[in-house]
Design a protein that fits this description.
Length: 361
Amino acid sequence: MTSAAQIRLAVLGAGLVGARHAEHVHQHLETTLSWIVDPNPETRLIAERTGSNWAPSLRDVPAGSCDAAIVATPNSDHLPSGLQCAERGWPCLIEKPIADTQANAKALISAFQEAGLPLLIGHHRRYHPFVPEAQGLLQSGKIGTPVFASILWAVRKPDSYFAASQWRKGASGGPLMINFIHEADLLLSLFGPVEELQAMTSNAVREEPVEDTAAVNIRFKSGMLATIILTDASLSPWSFEGASGENPTIAETGISSWRIGGTQGSFDFPSLNVWKDAEGGQGDWSKPLTMDQIPMSKIAPLEAQLSHFAALVRGDTDSPLVSGRDGLAALELVEAVLNAAKPSQTIRPGNRNTSKVSAHI
């Protein structure tokens, strides 16, 4: 039975991520799942299983029947759905990316600011305990001055993934907008602002309008460099989800996908295996290294994110862990990568009349 203290939530969009949100809301002690909103009639089964209501459109949901909403619809719908929620006075947890364009993201932020409503962006990786631990390693000087990061995200999404939703073959359905957006938020939270970047994409595997593979080079304002390879067309053990086991649809490998190096040590992430000079000195290539693993407890990040959202809705905190501005910054980085990857930014051997390949953000 629903208690008076429970927050009544609507989940908008019941696809892969939305269905997981719905299950967490249903099971969480502080929330109750009031509505599933999705035009697909098959999602009515989720409502029936969880004892909630189902509607094909938000227009069919009485404004007073919910306290807040989780928006997990396709990227292009985040703005219209978010605005409708703001008009109803509902705080929102909006899945990443915050919107499909920077202009729409800014419109969302303004709408929630003007309404005085909490807005939380669904970059759920921030809730893992190994994220603040990594921030501590970088900021404390324990590995010296950060020099580089090497990041690999490589999975093979099944054909059924694309067949189920045609929008995943369109401009906002590639690994840059859907998957790199996660890496972008972590890159900014760990390493700070970006100075410039270079990028290249390919659609050679599936030959769809959107990329299936991308390579990115980033220079941060601190001077450190990062290289990122990501693809949703390669079978491999290297992905953040595989390393952390956070996503039940992606097989856990336990193999870290990030390597971070400093002048006095390095570590992989998210495993947090830290390599230092075995004798405790400065160290160099002639001296042996020692490795220590920082133990971390595993959590369900979507559940932790939901608890934080509930605290925002109740007013127990007014500081979202990932604000609308944070979501906008991650989107800006992804859009900069997409712009840098355009053919006009590519140098071809033998052709000296080419444009500058870096994009400043």
